Amino acid sequence: MSESNATIELKGISKNFKKNTIIDGLDLFVNAGEFLVLLGPSGCGKSTTLRMIAGLEEPSSGKVLIDSQDRNQTKDDGHTIAMVFQDYALYPNMTVYQNLEYALKVHKVPSKNRTKLIENVLDTLNLTKYRDRLPSQLSGGQKQRVAVGRGMVKKSKIFLLDEPLSNIDVQLREKARDEIQKLHVTNNQTIVYVTHDQLEAMALGDRIAVMNQGIIQMIDIPENIYNQPTNLFVAKFIGTPQINVIEVSLKSNQLVLDETPIMQIQKPGLGADSYYLGIRPESLRCSKTKQTDLSFTVTVENIIDYGRFVQLLLVMENSHHLKAIVNNNEFKVNEKIFVTLEQTTSILFDLTTEKNLYWGNYE
Amino acid sequence: MLKKKLNLWHVLLIIIILGAIFPILFMVSNSFKTLRDSYGTMLNLIPLHPTFENYSLLNKQVNLLGLTWNTFLMATMVTVGKLLTGLLTAYAFRSYQFKGKMLIYLIFVSTIFVPFTIVMIPNYLVISKLNLLNNIIGVALPQLCDATGIMIFLKTMEKIPNSLIDAAKIDNIPNRKIFFNIVVPILKPSIVSVGAIFFINSWNEYVWPTLILKDKSSFTLPLALQNYISSEGGTNFPLAMALSTIMVVLPLIIYLIFQKYILNSISNSGLK
């Protein structure tokens, strides 16, 4: 019952369902007390990874270590791991209070401690007045809180959350997200959080592991995930509007798009070859007049005002589309304008491996 | 209510309801008629000379309490047995992966299509070898497991989300407790309605008990009833109707008590 945390280590984990390989040789280390987010598109194996940590699924090969001990060889007293499910999985036949109490009761926690624990949790989550309701009488947000509460009363070392916010209203989601973050700060448990929502991942994670097709593409702090994605997949998956990707070639220290030079580049060791250039929409400088020699003309095709910012959909002369974000819109649809690309924040990818070539100002 | 026009459907429904309810009213009313009246004014639903004579006569001739107790005991054993085996088997099919699962399930389900007449003789031989003839347990024993229950419960259990069972597993709840504390309560409506059907079927059962029960003291109600509409007692019609009425009372009470659940299970699986 100690409020401690534990490390999680996955060593060479593979998982096959029949003939399909869901996860292939995955290694992962989660530090004690860390908030790690597993992020990826649906079907990328993130939930399966979480279920293997939880012990609900056996890996086809490899090991899951919790506090350096093989989870198959240590007897779980039910206090090591707590988990919140996407559909909350509240016992429909039990009230809120009973849902929180059930596991404690089965594991013979004395009723005095039990009551105290549960009442604390109900209080923290503002659920006290709903304690005698059945799950069917609760709203989505309340159910989600009960599900989190059921995990909390266990005071477990590890807290696993499987897309806990995907079934609640957008308005409530931000509040619930803040609550989860607050819980992490106060309880300092090791948290593994699965989501397909990049905003959630960026907001919550100490580190984010971006997964695709059963492989961890990148694991790093949110800032690096956004600014220095290891490959094109990560770059495209993170960030809305999506990163612009254009195919360019390198000619005498200039990146050239269809004979038009668009960017100066000094990185030695890059051959005269074709590359993918990734530019975040906020790194496009739009203007009515030509700013530098490397500015090029585009036509404004569409303008979407999101209030906080304005998104421009631009068409280049080769009919390739670019998205730009500007704070104040001074442009009109069908207007021809100039675009200058910010060199320091743009990313160059290899054309075949799609890997980040780390150039520019990155260390 | 009356403002609504009676359409053809209503007329049809009323005819069907009358058709369903008439035999019951007929039975009850004749049980209060004298023998003479029952032959003279059989279709008259209101007895001309209402009498409790048939009931008191019946009480002298047979041990009503004993008969009811025997029938209740048998029907309860069969119902509880079928429910328990059905639920446990369905849970095993629901929760475990094992070799030949589909085949075993198909074999179970195919037993539904085996007519009773085919298993009657082998079952009889087994019961007689076990020395259970003339014993209520002998009647109940071959009926304690039933594929209908397995099938219905499996279908209902498949609606329980996996995450619910997973949530309990994460909390290290033993399987036995998951079954009794989570699965069974969720299935309560369908357990009650399937149980009611099992109970009423078993309560009314005639052929199989006739084979096993020879001694009058071990008779069930349908067996005793047979005596009043066949040669032994002569066909005393009001008496037979009185016994029939007694026989219907208990299942009717059970139905009324659990009606809420029975209707519920049709419209609602208890989840959500």
From TrEMBL, chain A:
Cited InterPro entries: AAA+_ATPase, ABC_transporter-like_ATP-bd, ABC_transporter-like_CS, ABC_transpr_MalK/UgpC-like, Mo/tungstate-bd_C_term_dom, P-loop_NTPase, Transp-assoc_OB_typ2
Ranges for domain ABC transporter: 8-238
Entry keyword set: ATP-binding, Nucleotide-binding, Translocase, Transport
GO molecular function: ATP binding
Keyword Transport among record annotations: yes
Presence of the UniProt keyword Translocase in the record: yes
SMART domains referenced in this protein's UniProt entry, alphabetically: AAA
Name this polypeptide is given: ABC transporter ATP-binding protein
Organism of derivation: Companilactobacillus huachuanensis
UniProtKB/TrEMBL annotation, chain B:
Gene3D superfamilies from the UniProt entry: MetI-like (1.10.3720.10)
Superkingdom, natural source: Bacteria
Residues spanning the membrane: 7-28, 67-91, 103-126, 132-154, 178-200, 237-258
Subcellular location: Cell membrane
Membrane topology: Multi-pass membrane protein
PROSITE patterns associated with the record: ABC_TM1 (PS50928)
UniProt KW keywords: Cell membrane, Membrane, Transmembrane, Transmembrane helix, Transport
Keyword check for rRNA-binding: no
Domain ABC transmembrane type-1: residue ranges: 68-258
Pfam families: BPD_transp_1
Record-stated family: Belongs to the binding-protein-dependent transport system permease family.
Protein name: Carbohydrate ABC transporter permease
Organism taxonomic ancestry: Bacteria, Bacillati, Bacillota, Bacilli, Lactobacillales
